[in-house]
Design a protein that fits this description.
The protein is α+β, with helices and mostly antiparallel strands and 233 residues long. It has helices at residues 3-22, 26-32, 38-44, 166-184, 188-221; strands spanning 53-55, 60-64, 72-79, 82-88, 97-98, 101-106, 109-113, 116-117, 128-133, 141-146, 157-158, 162-163. Strands 9, 10, 11 and 12 form a 4-stranded antiparallel β-sheet that branches. It starts with a helix and ends in a 12-residue tail after the last helix.
Length: 233
C-alpha cells in the first residue's frame, strides 16, 4: 500500500475513533466532519468506544484482478467521490455475497474482517446433529442427536441437554447489584467504569461456552463406545 493510501485510511480511522468516543448523533457528526463519507457518521452514532470501522455493503467492494502483487483489492469509499484501492493478502479465494464487515487497525497495518454469505453443500447422512437453543434465561442449551455407528440410519438417539448459563446469570446479577448500590451513592463515574468490565467478562464467558460446546460435540462424535451419548434403557 502506498503512503498516500495509508495516510487516507489513517485519517478516516482517526475521525471514526473521534466520533465514537464523543457519541454524538448523526447530524452533529456530519457538521463536525463534513469531509467523511456520510454512512460512517451514521454508524458512528450507534457504535461503542474503540469499535473498529464499520463497512456496510455500500462502502466497499472486493475486486479480483490478475495482478501478481495481490489477487484481490479492497475498493473502499473514503468520502464523496473519493475511493481508494488497497491490496488484500489472503490464502483463500474470496467469493460469495459480501455483507457488512469491519476494518481493524493493527499497529501499522489494517485487517479486513470480511463477512460473506454463500451456499454450501450439506452432508446428506450426518452422523450427529448438534441443536443449540439461544435464550435470555439460558444463554445456550445444547442437545446432541446421534446415530448408532452400527447402522446407516439418520440420527435418532438424543443425548442429555447441556445448560450453559449459570455463571453468566450470576455475573449479570452481581453487576446489577453493584450498579444499584453505586446509583444510590451517586457514583455515576464508577457505574461507567464497571460497564466495560462487565462486558469484557461476559464476552469471555460466552466465548468459553461456545468453545466448550464444540469440544463436547467432538468428543461425543468420535467416542467409539457411544455409551455416554444416550440412555440405553
Amino acid at each position: 500500500m502506498t503512503k498516500r493510501k495509508l495516510a487516507l485510511l489513517d485519517e478516516v480511522y482517526a475521525v471514526w475513533q473521534d466520533m465514537i468516543k464523543k457519541r454524538k448523533p448523526y447530524a452533529e457528526n456530519r457538521k463536525m466532519h463534513p469531509e467523511i463519507y456520510s454512512m460512517y457518521a451514521a454508524m458512528a452514532s450507534r457504535a461503542e468506544p474503540n469499535d473498529p470501522l464499520y463497512l456496510n455493503e455500500q462502502a466497499f467492494s472486493i475486486v479480483k484482478t490478475n495482478n501478481k502483487f495481490a489477487k484481490y483489492f479492497l475498493d473502499i469509499r473514503i468520502a464523496k467521490g473519493v475511493r481508494i484501492y488497497c491490496p488484500l493478502r489472503t490464502k483463500h479465494d474470496i467469493n460469495g455475497k459480501f455483507n457488512d464487515s469491519k476494518l481493524v487497525k493493527r499497529d501499522e497495518h489494517y485487517e479486513l474482517h470480511l463477512s460473506i454469505s454463500k451456499e454450501i453443500g450439506i452432508n446428506a447422512h450426518p452422523s450427529a446433529i448438534l441443536a443449540v437453543d439461544m435464550g435470555e434465561r439460558n444463554i445456550a442449551t445444547a442437545v446432541l442427536l446421534v446415530s448408532d455407528p452400527r447402522s446407516a440410519k439418520i440420527p435418532t438417539k438424543v443425548g442429555r441437554p447441556m445448560f450453559m448459563s449459570r455463571k453468566v446469570r450470576g455475573l449479570r446479577r452481581h453487576y446489577a447489584y453493584l450498579r444499584r448500590v453505586l446509583g444510590q451513592k451517586k457514583l455515576l463515574h464508577m457505574i461507567k467504569r464497571i460497564k466495560d468490565t462487565e462486558k469484557r467478562k461476559a464476552n469471555d464467558m460466552l466465548h468459553k461456552i461456545s468453545r466448550a460446546r464444540q469440544h463436547r460435540k467432538a468428543e461425543q462424535c468420535f467416542d467409539t463406545t457411544w455409551r455416554p451419548v444416550w440412555n440405553t434403557r
